Amino acid sequence: MAEKLQRVLVLIPAYNEAGAIGKVIEGIKGSIRSIDHDVLVVDDGSLDETAIQVRAAGAMVVSLIENLGYGYALQTGYRVAMQGGYDIVVQMDGDGQHDPDSIKELLPPVLEGKADVVLGSRALSDVYYPMPWTRRVGQRVFSWILYLLSGMRIGDPTTGFQVLNRKALELYITDDFPGDYPDTDVLLFLKLRGLRVLELPATFRVNESGKSMHGGILKPMYYIYKMLFSMVLVYRRHQRWAKGMKR
Amino acid sequence: MNGVYLLPTMHQRAAAAFLGLVGMIMIYRMVRRHTLREEHALLWFTAIVVMLAVIWIDSLLLTVTGLLGIAMPGNALILLTIFFLFLISVRLSSVVSIQKRQIAKLIMEVSILKGQITNDVNCGPKLPE
Description:
The structure holds 2 protein chains of 2 kinds.
Chain A: E1 8-14, H1 21-31, E2 37-43, H2 50-56, E3 60-63, H3 70-83, E4 88-91, H4 103-111, E5 117-121, H5 133-150, E6 162-165, H6 166-172, H7 184-192, E7 197-201, H8 218-242
Helix pairs in contact in A: 3-6, 5-7, 5-8, 7-8
Chain B: H1 10-32, H2 38-56, H3 58-68, H4 73-121
């Protein structure tokens, strides 16, 4: 029996990435030429020419009419993937941090049905990725909480480099997917719902633009509060869901 | 100290009734002009009616004061007012949160639909329909 060819969508949320997005798309096309895929960029209300450059690079684009933030930009892409009947989504950043060559390493477990979600990890990679010590400590703490609540050991729980199948997509398009900072709380959600999450090494490049969604003083503080609260909520919601109770 | 002597005077009660009436008329007019929904007006009407009842009925005010463990009825009235304002604020925060998600969903759907149309116009790669 001939195996059904799986449709792959590379999803890139982008905000003001006119300087980098063209190269990112070209890099993807060059790296996974052998795999039948489409590239979709969700332009999160950019003020620059991100959308124009995406079209020029030959990728699909959805331009959000207002800036909604990273989580909602991703969810827009998941909705397109569901509507379009894609089987697998490769999710990566638009600033060139994620090396497209790593996609070939991350895809097989999902293609072969051995995992539902594969995380591209800085922690497992041989290539050193410089990170402020505060962030490294934060990552360790969240990793430990995740282990405590789910028994799952993930070294890089804040990675945005992921490959996921339709089973994960179905969960990602629900209201349980957070609109801001979908990170460790989503991994906990996936694990509690019985999805198989695998972490594999991936190459990350240093973000030359220096832009970060965790920059400043207030954002990291909000991130810590939000993530801790969100993880507790995910855990409690799951307990109630498992008992068939109303959330 | 006997709390009975610290109950609102007739003057204060009349002032409260007047302010309550003005508040109710204001809310009614806002609902009539579609600038406030009946659902949210109910919160304000309830707060005004309860506050007026507590101010006008001595036994009720003294019961509330005793239940809260407060010495002076005036302080109990202030605490009750703060509590109502807190409830209304929490309710409105909840409405804003629900609407934020609804608006986000609308923006996502509209943007996808717009993308399906404009990508055709710009001869870019077509989005799945």
